[in-house]
Amino acid sequence: MTPSGDLGHWAFDDFATTVRTGQTPEGKVLDPSVMPWPIATRMTDVELEALWLYLQSLPTAAIAAVRTRPHVHGGRDGATMRPRGQHL
After folding, report:
1. Would you state the pLDDT for residue 82?
2. DSSP assignment of 1-56
3. Residue 75 Cα distances to 27, 65, 81, angstroms
4. What is the value of pTM for the model shown?
């Protein structure tokens, strides 16, 4: 869900419904292991609009950097950092 991806073609209502349900307007079901559905379902429209506006404000380069950042598994010291999908 980024301005350079599907999000760039959605209206706010599409975004809000997707965040609350985990299903895009196109019918794609998003991975529940990386999306905070229990929290998102309790977000108010004002909170979701703030998130929407923030995501819309991000430049494409910032989004690409977030996508390539390693996912942290384990301790705070970073000793167990590895790219997402790689397991011990």
Report:
1. 45
2. --TTTGGGG--HHHHHHHHHHSB-TTSPBP-TTTS-HHHHTT--HHHHHHHHHHHH
3. 36, 22, 9
4. 0.60
